[in-house]
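Handout, section B. The chain below has 225 residues.
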Amino acid sequence: MGAESHYDCHSKALAKESKDNNTHTLPKNWEVKTLGEIGKVVSGGTPSTSNKDNFDGEIAWITPADLSGYKEKYISKGKRNLSEQGLKNSSARLLPPNSILFSSRAPIGYVAIASNTLCTNQGFKNLIPHSNVSSEYIYYFLLYSKRLAESVASGTTFKEISATNFSKLHIPLPPLETQKQIVQILESKFAHLEKLAQFVNASLENLQKLKSSLLNQAFKGELVC
């Protein structure tokens, strides 16, 4: 056998680091799995854009641009739809509800869950999870793992994570009921943090108004006798 390429060695090292990090001090009833072991990885595609009959149908089609600035956990459609012809003439595949969408290039790391049957362009690596895995648990894990995904991406013009490397990412996996419990706790704490952020922003706005008021008084001669 020939020597492994630098890229292969680098990928293996990162995969080992990923697993080592995720196995550290895990509870006894947790496992470490790869994404490929807990679901089916499916890529997307784009039909010819020069043929308008490929678009404006009834099939929801998501691109990374649709997730730019998108704050919701679930997504049902993007700016454009595919027609049946467009789906047939591309490598896009229909994804069932609760599939996890993960943008794999330009940029890496947008995450959403399909709220209905839809498909994506080639800018995604999507995961159809097995029945013993919570889509929302995977969603939060992938939000947390953006930097890890970026570390196994390759490319010169722009970085992209391959389906193979995406499938090899390790995820700490507790029993399903624990996954659901973790999701509930995260969402409760995130809601609290959001309220706290709103309070801080309102306080900063009031502070700015006070500063403006003081400056206004200063240059009207109202701060001195």
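Note. The CA atoms of residues 141 and 171 lie 7 Å apart. Compare this with the example in section A.
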